[in-house]
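Chapter summary example: a protein plus 2-acetamido-2-deoxy-beta-D-glucopyranose.
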Amino acid sequence: MSSLLLLVLSALLTSALCCDWLSHYSQMSGESLKLIKSMGGPLTDERPVPFPNKLYSRIRRVPVHSQLAFVEETLTLMAQLFDNANMSTAGWNQTSTDKFLMTIERQRDDISSCIPSKTSAVAGLQRYFRRLEKVTLLHTGASRGAWEQVRRESWAHLVQLDVLVQQIRDQSARRR
Ligand SMILES: *[C@@H]1O[C@H](CO)[C@@H](O)[C@H](O)[C@H]1NC(C)=O
Ligand SMILES: *[C@@H]1O[C@H](CO)[C@@H](O)[C@H](O)[C@H]1NC(C)=O
């Protein structure tokens, strides 16, 4: 990486908005993990599609702005999953569900302020979410079981995003 790029990245990460976002993320993330669990009963063990572990290991080796774009895009695609289909069949606690969706949308909006122009995330992420939607919600007409699988996968993503953001934060702290 060129030193100029490093300089730009450090400036980006230490900018007020980004700092703010980075320092609040783990609290927000903890909140969304708590909410997604309180929306319904215990998380299901049924995994409708293989979890994209490869995407997560690939994203650890790309520049920070791409990692941030990945977090943003994952949150956006996740919010869309919940938005696209009829959620009344899920039978979830409405208060927790509304709060959960608000929390991930707020995280997504906050991170947007951190990303320079339009940085594209990693290839394959959209394909993964389309497939997840297809085999769960679209395939069953949004059955209760399908929603539980969507909730389970979303939880797994939030856990992984939390780890990734922690890594970004450690990197930016070392640079200061
Ligand atoms: C959602 O599903 C419920 C229960 O099946 C149904 O009563 C309601 O009309 C549906 N809403 C929409 C917008 O399709
Ligand atoms: C839904 O969750 C809220 C907390 O988020 C709780 O106060 C409320 O009692 C729950 N409602 C039902 C019907 O379980």
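Key point: Residues 3-175 form a domain with the Growth Hormone; Chain: A; fold (CATH 1.20.1250.10).
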